[in-house]
Design a protein that fits this description.
The structure is a single chain. By secondary structure, the chain is α/β, with parallel strands linked by helices. The chain contains 16 helices and 30 strands. It has an eight-stranded parallel barrel, surrounded by seven helices. The radius of gyration is 28 Å and the shape is globular. Bound molecules: acetamide. The site of acetamide has 4 residues, from loops.
């Protein structure tokens, strides 16, 4: 039988291969007991055979007249990356070729996905290369400890998606999670806390406990555990990158060794003292053991969100700044990063850090992981540094993936699969000379609000599937409509293998009204602002409140306008309806999510005028401001009957900032 089919779009493989060509020949039918041959070094052969055993078990045989061949060779037509491969499906034999074990392994992942949807494989030639050399997933095992079995299970899942880096966030205030032989106190004390969840720990005052204390919650990876993870990952061509936080996010270390902070107080000190040589002695001793365990070329040193508070008044920090000619505390942070970079470089490793490592001057060989937007990564790339893109708005898998009221509480944001998938880490507008410095993309799972393993998987998948395709598939071949059903199928197959994924079949989507503009009397009418909006959240500027476009679940979605506190009057706008009009309704909706300081107003006043000078109050709505969990919305409105040309809408708040998307007049 002859098969012919459209190029690429129909093959059930994710990430979608770069080049798929149908061949006018009979299909290959996977025999009942296929014969497999692997011509590659023993280590690689074992790794590839392990996948075959996993999927086909007793069905397959090793033999000399193979039906499925894996061949490592010096060069393969069209393969331009060390991780690339070709996969030829001919009527009698399937042949994978690559120049490395990783390439053959990726050919195997493609083949196992093809076979998963049926034993009849249409004849085709696939030539595939990754778009980016670094395709990562970050797991935060500090906020809630996750053990080696959990980590290995996730490594197994993402290896199938051709992810090649797993970044472990091992240390943070909520717990130190790696055994360090020289400092057993770190895992006898700083890995254990009072309070099961991160929230309970916060509520109970962020205290640590000794591991044998009653009620101690926590855990850590022994060095043997970590080595087992590294090996398990290497067998799947994944490099494990350890992250050891410095100079901040280090409350747990300072609680263990108070002499490492500026104040020597046990509690409340996030930053190491950069003036104190003991800090460098500690960090280098820790890194010495970390480098022994983790062969990764990149070593992540955190570097984010240093408070730098105590440095300003610390005699040792001031002496350091004086001696080194440092102008400010940013340069003091940069001093630490430079020094640690020199140390890592002297051991043949590269420093990788969050984009704050650029503050005060970027260390000469450092790689920047861009999380506060994309600017840090782009600036790093423009100055000839490697950049890994993981901007919060697309790659932070701790954001909500569906309508917040339907989901377990998340730390914030609404970031469905489609938003993640829409991310392009290498913008077209960049110069050709800059683009190659953007080396990767990474999905980050921060776990403050994610206390269980099941919840972590729920947040990871299917969104990690999108990250994998972003990192692998050429931008011009990516297509949301084609991707979504593949993601549905993969997540379904993962559930069968025991993963607790989010089920896209139940997706609710964005806030009702987001997709359909609302018609009302004020639509398109001019709005005058007595108090300007917050310039960080301009939305559509002075047309926002009457453009008919309702906001979604996120105040960052460009539909919500932000208002800061100015003279205690945060929203004060007047709409000109252009002529005196009968009105029966005026309303504006606000949101509350107190984590980032977004509050419903305390008082809303709606008034009207026929001449724009004398206003008559229609209603005053008082609202008691209360801290609430999660995300909520409230419409502040008036109904009745009035005649007016001008409608004035005032909203005050004693707390935080306010967000408003539209003022509806009927
Ligand atoms: C980060 O999210 N603080 C890197």
């Amino acid at each position: 039988m002859l098969f012919s089919f459209l190029l690429s779009a129909v093959i059930p493989v994710t990430p979608m291969p770069a080049d798929v060509r149908s061949v006018d020949a009979d299909a290959f039918v996977m025999p009942e007991h296929p014969v497999l041959s692997i011509q590659a070094p023993a280590t690689d052969s074992v790794r590839i055979a392990a996948c075959a055993v996993d999927d086909w078990g007793a069905r397959f045989n090793i033999g000399t007249k193979p039906q499925v061949r894996f061949v490592m060779t010096d060069s393969v037509a069209g393969v331009v990356s060390p991780e690339g491969y070709s996969l030829q499906i001919a009527p009698d034999v399937v042949t994978a070729r690559a120049v490395s074990g990783a390439g053959l392994f990726y050919a195997m992942q493609t083949l196992r996905q093809l076979v998963a949807s049926g034993d009849t494989l249409p004849a085709m030639d696939i030539v595939d290369n990754p778009r980016l050399p670094y395709r990562g997933m970050m797991l935060d095992i500090s906020r809630h400890f996750r053990d080696k079995e959990f980590i290995k299970k996730q490594i197994d899942a993402v290896a199938r998606l051709k992810i090649n880096r797993v970044h472990l966030h091992l240390t943070d205030a909520a717990g130190w999670r790696l055994e360090i032989k020289k400092y057993p106190e770190l895992t006898d004390f700083a890995a254990w806390r009072q309070g099961n969840t991160w929230k309970e720990w916060n509520a109970q005052g962020n205290k640590y406990l000794h591991r044998d204390d009653p009620g101690a919650v926590g855990g850590f990876l022994t060095q043997d555990d970590a080595r087992e993870i590294v090996k398990y990952a290497a067998d799947r061509y994944i490099t494990v990158i350890p992250e050891i936080e410095m100079p901040s996010h280090s409350e747990e270390v300072n609680a263990t060794f108070p002499q490492l902070s500026c104040t020597h107080e046990q509690y409340g000190q996030p930053d190491f003292c950069v003036g104190n040589e003991l800090t460098f002695e500690f960090l280098q001793n820790v890194l010495d053991e970390v480098l022994e365990i983790f062969p990764s070329a990149d070593i992540h040193i955190g570097g984010d969100e240093a408070s730098k508070r105590a440095w300003k008044d610390c005699a040792l920090c001031k002496a350091r700044m004086e001696a080194e000619g440092l102008e400010n505390v940013d340069e003091l942070q940069s001093y630490l990063i430079h020094r640690i970079e020199q140390y890592l470089n002297s051991k043949g490793r590269n420093l990788l850090g969050w984009d704050e490592i650029m503050e005060g001057g970027l260390a000469p060989n450092a790689t920047v992981m861009s999380w506060r937007g994309i600017e840090g990564g782009i600036r790093a790339a423009q100055s000839g540094h490697r950049a890994i893109m993981s901007p919060g708005a697309y790659c932070y898998l701790d954001n909500y993936q569906d309508a917040p009221p339907t989901q377990p509480e998340a730390i914030g944001g609404y970031m469905p699969l489609k938003t993640v998938y829409s991310y392009n880490p290498v913008p077209d507008t960049l110069d050709a000379s800059v683009k190659p410095w953007i080396q990767g993309v990474q999905g980050n799972l921060w776990c403050e609000y994610i206390p269980t393993a099941e919840h972590a998987e729920y947040m990871l998948y299917p969104r990690m599937i999108a990250i994998a395709e972003i990192g692998w598939t050429p931008q011009e071949k990516r297509d949301w409509d084609d991707f979504r059903p593949r993601a549905v199928a993969i997540a379904g197959a993962m559930r069968e293998r025991g993963y607790n994924t989010f089920d896209l079949n139940t997706e609710h989507g964005n806030k009702p009204g987001f997709d359909t503009p609302v018609e009302h009397l004020a639509r398109g009418k001019k709005v005058t602002y007595a108090v300007p909006w917050w310039n960080r959240y301009t939305a559509g500027a002075d047309t926002t409140l009457t453009d008919g476009l309702r906001g979604g679940w996120n105040y960052t979605d460009g539909r919500w306008q932000g208002f800061l506190n100015r003279a205690d009057q945060r929203v004060d706008v007047t709409i000109d309806l252009e002529k005196v009009t009968d009105i029966s309704y005026v309303g504006g909706e606000f949101m509350q999510i107190i984590g980032p300081g977004v509050w419903l107003p305390q008082r809303v006043e709606i008034s009207v005028s026929t001449d724009g000078k004398k206003f008559k109050t229609l209603t005053v709505i008082n609202h008691e401001q209360k801290a609430t969990e999660g995300l909520s919305f409230k419409m502040f409105d008036w109904q009745g009957s009035a005649r007016a040309r001008y409608v004035r809408f005032i909203a005050n708040s004693a707390e935080g900032c306010q967000f408003l998307d539209e003022i509806i007049v009927r």
